[in-house]
Design goal:
Radius of gyration: 19 Å
CATH topology: TIM Barrel
Protein name: Mandelate racemase/muconate lactonizing enzyme C-terminal domain-containing protein
Strand content: 5-15%
Cofactor: Mg(2+)
Shape: globular
Keywords: Magnesium, Metal-binding
Helix content: 25-40%
InterPro entries: Enolase-like_C_sf, Enolase_C-like, Mandelate_racemase_C, RHMD-like
Oligomer: single chain
Low-confidence stretches: none
Structural class: alpha/beta
Pfam family, one: MR_MLE_C
Number of domains: 1
CATH class: Alpha Beta
CATH architecture: Alpha-Beta Barrel
Order of helices and strands: HEHEHEHEHEHHHEEEEHEE
Number of helices: 9
């Protein structure tokens, strides 16, 4: 999920990972994050969309994330290209605060539009779901404020008949929390996000790391979250306890 890669290299990279781990779905980045209709490289979006489909084949579920990069008019134009090449869903086509713009895109397109990763307010999610501003809702456990609040969004989605695909950006503990959320909530029916990028700051923190086998991650069987913090990480961590207005080291 990077933009500083050519369409050809990205297609080959995803195809290799699909062959190795059995992935049956993947997401690419189009446009530029909050880019106001500017592409990450000249004509990259128009090149990567068909290239991915050509390399991955007709049955592989492909989605595209614009990270709020388009006006509604341009998002609709890009969405038509995604529809032409059989993409699964179109994520965050417009800047996330512009809910009406996103709704206009969702109303115009046949491809499902998704969003919600950066939203922190339960009332905003209620407006999003009630207005049908998105076809797939994507709360982030970190942004929304924890598992309990993310679960409320998933319940809202279930009641409205809208799928929920929690946003999960990296292989941190967030991935573990999101795995449990997706396993527990009936609205989480689609393939869920699972990071393929190496993030050094998340390494050496906990174990065992859930593994992808045949395109699936098994439900944890161990107590609690199914993981333990690494002893070395705990030993080196700074510990603080807050008591009222005073803080003790």
């Amino acid at each position: 999920m990077v933009r500083d890669i050519t369409p050809e290299a990205e297609a080959d990279r995803i195809a290799g990972l699909a062959a190795e781990f059995g992935f049956r779905a993947a997401k690419i980045r189009v446009g530029e994050a909050m880019g106001r209709d500017v592409d990450a490289a000249p004509h990259r979006t128009e090149r990567i969309i068909p290239r991915m489909r050509e390399v991955l084949g007709p049955d592989f579920l492909l989605s595209a994330d614009a990270n709020g990069g388009y006006t509604a008019a341009q998002a609709i134009r890009v969405g038509r290209i995604l529809e032409q090449h059989g993409y699964f869903h179109f994520e965050e086509p417009c800047p996330f605060p512009q809910l009406d713009e996103t709704a206009a895109v969702a109303d115009a397109l046949d491809i499902p539009v998704s969003g919600g990763e950066q939203d922190t307010s339960l009332p905003q999610f209620h407006r999003m779901v009630s207005r049908r501003a998105v076809d797939i809702v994507q709360p982030d456990v970190g942004y929304i404020g924890g598992i309990s609040r993310a679960r409320k969004v998933a319940v809202l989605a279930e009641a409205a008949g809208i799928p929920c695909t929690p946003h999960c950006a990296n292989a941190s503990l967030l991935q573990v929390f999101t795995l449990h959320l997706a396993l527990a909530m009936p609205a989480c029916i689609h393939p869920q996000e699972w990071s393929i990028e190496r993030t050094p700051w998340t390494e050496g923190v906990f174990g065992p790391m859930p593994e992808v086998v045949g395109g699936e991650v098994a439900a944890p069987h161990e107590p609690g979250w199914g993981i333990e913090l690494e002893e070395g990480f705990v030993a080196q961590a700074e510990r603080r306890i807050s008591r009222g207005s005073q803080q003790m080291d």
